Amino acid sequence: MTLDARSLIKAYFAEGTLPGLPDGHFIGGRIVANSDGDRLESYDPGNGQAFARFGAGKGEDVSRAVEAAQQGLAAWRDTPPATRCQVLNRAAALIRERSDYFAVVEAVDSGKTLAEARGDARSCIRLFEYYAGIADKLEGRSIPLGSGLTSWTEREPVGITAQIIPWNYPSSTFVRGVAPALAAGCAVVAKPAETTPFTALLLAQWLHEAGVPAGAVNVVTGLGSDAGAPLVRHPSIAHVTFTGSVATGVGVMQAVAPNVTQLTLELGGKSPLVALADCDVDKAVEGALWAIFSNAGQICSAGSRLVVERSIHAEMMEKLVARTRTLKLGHGLKDPDVGAINSRQHLDRIARHVEAARGRGCSILTGGSATHDPASNSGWFFEPTIIDNLAPSDPAIQQEIFGPVLSVQVVDGEEEALAMANATEFALVAGIYTGDIGKALRLARSIDAGQVTINDYWAGGIEVPFGGNRKSGFGREKGIEGIDAYVRTKAITIRH
Ligand code: NAD
């Protein structure tokens, strides 16, 4: 699709739909209709209107996709690694060429802002380029056993991998699994979230166009219970990468157990941003603002808890509230600061959390209600919200809200800050703002999290491994570690 963003946006607001959206699953290198003809509607969260339909996949569609993946695997596994590099680089180039269209589709389907969707397109490009660079470097080692024996290891693809994708980062979560899986020589069957199916379908088509053989990447859309559940249970699936909520992740873990299928779990978070008394308060305010309000707070790794030292608490709150009140909400294609909440159902969930906090007498400094795009008086939005001075046991501290809601905890000193940072069942990300490098390093090593950033909450990129501990899951994606789930080691020894 070569249309530029401006023409696409104009056409979308005039017609209420977008051109070129795939209508069906992507199986065996082509778009195919759903086995029973059943379809679901996809809604634009920015105005609450349905804009396209997609297949409501069932077990039969999953079986067709896994069969196609068996053929795709045979072809792709034997494709020379150098060719795999070239194909993945071509896929990156296609996304770059089509990034206007891609970003507009992602913004409409998910509710995020166009700037955020463009950022996701860049992540997809980088992920393909990064793992293209690894495809031809999956080397083994030789093992010294003495004369008469020669032993070495090879790293082989695990086989067919299932990718279960959430709705908050529909394209970049898809690619962060698919790129290393393809680099390793695996085949893929992916199941996007039921509210955001389109960019995964587009990417699967473009990968095929770039040279990925038919069947090596398949996408089955539909509900988790109808399409996701049969996929993860399928005996031909060698590895499942699941990104989503803790409750569903636990169910997936149980579902894969009988087949002893490998599993990566990327689950929820309640990540702390620790602001110590000696930090640069203005930088910490800006860091905290975007740690929670990027993507309207719908990020597993959002800095959803601010753990602040008492002596800077009042100053920080004053500045943070003032800055929060400047944020403009709106339809993602109008490129506001904060976009929509992905579904009506999730908006209600966020509102219930905040209502319950209000009912407990919590201090809501700003925001606190569901709202609309002020320009159209429609869509699913939640005001950027700050709840102050919460007790460690408060549900707003312990539970993932997954929306634009910052929960604040006040502490005295580094030791209490550490204790609070670690005092939830999650352990995904932590941010530390301080002018004292000694404190920064002590905290970075003692906080239980998969990744810690110092004096910038979102520092890093696709080169940096990402994943959680405890109820945030296990396994790592991105970075060189991201390939590990998709290769297994085989040792071969010869007596001679
Ligand atoms: P969800 O668990 O409801 O759904 C995630 C995916 O699982 C969807 O595709 C859904 O259709 C599918 N699914 C549902 N039931 C299934 C089943 N029985 N078997 C197989 N698949 C099934 O999560 P969500 O609401 O879409 O996403 C939000 C959650 O995801 C939050 O908790 C967030 O923290 C988490 N998340 C984590 C990361 C991470 O990298 N750690 C990234 C993004 C989101």
TrEMBL record:
Annotated InterPro entries: Ald_DH/histidinol_DH (IPR016161), Ald_DH_C (IPR016163), Ald_DH_CS_CYS (IPR016160), Ald_DH_CS_GLU (IPR029510), Ald_DH_N (IPR016162), Aldehyde_DH_dom (IPR015590)
UniProt keyword Flavoprotein, yes or no: no
PROSITE patterns: ALDEHYDE_DEHYDR_CYS, ALDEHYDE_DEHYDR_GLU
Gene3D superfamilies: Aldehyde Dehydrogenase, Chain A, domain 1, Aldehyde Dehydrogenase, Chain A, domain 2
Segments forming domain Aldehyde dehydrogenase: 35-492
KW Oxidoreductase (keyword) present: yes
Highest rank taxon of the organism: Bacteria
Active site: E266
Keywords in alphabetical order: Oxidoreductase
Family: Belongs to the aldehyde dehydrogenase family.
The protein, known as: Aldehyde dehydrogenase family protein
Organism annotation: Aquamicrobium soli
Native organism taxonomy: Bacteria, Pseudomonadati, Pseudomonadota, Alphaproteobacteria, Hyphomicrobiales
